[in-house]
UniProtKB/TrEMBL annotation:
This is Glyoxalase. Pfam families: Glyoxalase (PF00903). Residues 6-127 form the VOC domain. It comes from Streptomyces zingiberis. InterPro entries: Glyas_Bleomycin-R_OHBP_Dase, Glyas_Fos-R_dOase_dom, VOC_core.
Length: 134
């Protein structure tokens, strides 16, 4: 079983490593773990995110949230709200503004979707009832 000190490993393509570093480190505040010629690794909200250099990865004109995206489901509303303030302050590119899904049901949650420079979509959520996180 997973120890809370373990980190989930996420790998995504990045057409430009400098742009990825700017987005994840400078804009989102994810600490830079290490940088190599072919990849850059971040502490992505406690998990390991590796952006692999993929200059030939085709650009997606109109990315779709489903089926490919990743992100964080915050247990604390205060942490979700702190991210919202950071996104507004640093003018982070937003793919889909904050919305409430499944309002009035047990699965009610707020969601925000960002897009990185390579078109990878990041979804951030907070469930009103934390028991619905999984």
């Amino acid at each position: 079983m997973r120890n809370p000190a373990d980190a989930c490993h996420i790998a995504v393509p990045a057409r430009d490593l400098d742009a990825a570093a700017h987005f994840y480190n400078t804009l989102l505040g994810c600490p830079l773990a290490r940088r190599r010629d072919d990849r850059v690794t971040f502490d992505f909200f406690g998990d390991q995110l590796v952006c692999h250099h993929a200059p030939d990865e085709p650009a997606v004109d109109r990315p779709h949230l489903y089926p490919r995206h990743f992100g964080v489901t915050f247990r604390s509303r205060a942490d979700f709200d702190a991210l919202l303030r950071l996104v507004a302050l640093r003018e982070v590119p937003v793919f889909r503004e904050t919305t409430t899904r499944f309002a009035g049901t047990a699965e009610e949650h707020s969601t925000l979707v960002l897009t990185d420079p390579s078109g990878n979509l990041l979804e951030f959520k907070h469930y009103t009832d934390a028991r619905m996180m999984y």
